[in-house]
């Protein structure tokens, strides 16, 4: 009897494992609507990046879809981002998850890990370039990046990398000897936009990077998730992660949706941004001046 019970338990256990694996696969592929493609992409200096593409099956060169490139934290690998990839891909958004340099099946980088974060987002920037040039089912006007912890820092820096190229091109276009003189022509603006290959970003964490200098280099739709007890909260200007008490990092992020003139007006009326906006009459001209719509979410 005891041997029969053990055998039955073994059979039931194996059966449950098989069912669980099959059901997990169905969830991961949105019940067959998403194709998961493993990749290993060569980058510079003999390095490579390994990861997966969650490709909606209805995407093609004739039916282009948005792309989100998502990066894990320092002590994780690409599978930490599976839940984001599953939820986005089932909404017809392609997703690239990857092992950052020094992680998982990817190679090391030519720099130490934190220097690699600053240089290329430990792989995020090379993947943007790869997708932009090689994936014909991706809408290049709708490429976004997101990440948590180390991946969040890579997201900030990737947005700055492309945004700074955009603003540099606009400055060159305003030179007296440029095509349109001090006026930016349509072709000059088109060229500047072509350099800004990332149009949206969602860093999760690392709000300590939130400053006017950083936002002056970002030209993208921007979201931000940060918890009061998130990592590094002790390193913020007020010594904690409470952003509700006029924390400079939070105010800068929210205030970044306005043009410089609008920001100064709000600051002159009150040190409390929310009160300043509440008591100020926002005109149609103010709304028209919002050249970078940004959504900020604090959790």
TrEMBL record:
Signal peptide residue numbers: none
InterPro entries: AB_hydrolase_1 (IPR000073), AB_hydrolase_fold (IPR029058), FrsA_esterase (IPR050261)
Location of the AB hydrolase-1 domain: 66-162
Family statement: Belongs to the AB hydrolase superfamily. FUS2 hydrolase family.
Protein name as catalogued: AB hydrolase-1 domain-containing protein
Naturally occurring in which organism (per UniProt): Anoxybacillus andreesenii
């Amino acid at each position: 009897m005891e041997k029969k019970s053990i055998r039955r338990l073994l059979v039931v256990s194996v059966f449950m494992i098989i069912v669980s694996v099959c059901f997990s696969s169905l969830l991961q592929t949105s019940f067959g609507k998403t194709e998961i493609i493993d990749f290993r992409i060569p980058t510079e200096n003999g390095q490579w990046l390994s990861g997966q593409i969650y490709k909606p099956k209805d995407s093609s060169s004739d039916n282009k879809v948005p792309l989100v490139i998502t990066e894990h934290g320092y002590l994780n690998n690409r599978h930490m981002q599976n839940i984001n990839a599953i939820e986005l891909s089932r909404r017809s958004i392609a997703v690239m998850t990857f092992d950052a340099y020094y992680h998982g099946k990817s190679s090391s980088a030519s720099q130490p890990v934190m220097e690699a974060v600053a240089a290329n987002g430990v792989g995020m920037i090379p993947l943007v370039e790869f997708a932009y040039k090689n994936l014909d089912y991706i809408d290049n006007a709708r490429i976004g990046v997101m990440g948590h912890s180390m991946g969040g820092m890579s997201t900030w820096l990737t947005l700055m990398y492309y945004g700074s190229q955009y603003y540099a091109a606009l400055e060159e276009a305003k030179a007296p000897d440029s095509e349109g003189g001090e006026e930016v022509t349509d072709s000059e603006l088109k060229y500047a936009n072509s350099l800004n290959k990332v149009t949206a970003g969602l860093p999760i964490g690392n709000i300590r990077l939130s400053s006017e200098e950083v936002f002056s280099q970002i030209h993208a739709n921007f979201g931000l998730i940060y918890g009061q007890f998130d990592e590094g909260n002790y390193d913020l200007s007020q010594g904690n992660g409470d952003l509700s008490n006029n924390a400079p990092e939070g105010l800068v992020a929210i205030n970044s949706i306005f043009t410089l003139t609008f920001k100064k007006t709000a600051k002159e009326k009150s040190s409390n941004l929310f009160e300043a906006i509440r008591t100020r009459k926002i005109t149609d001209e103010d709304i028209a001046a919002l050249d970078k719509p940004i959504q900020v979410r604090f959790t």
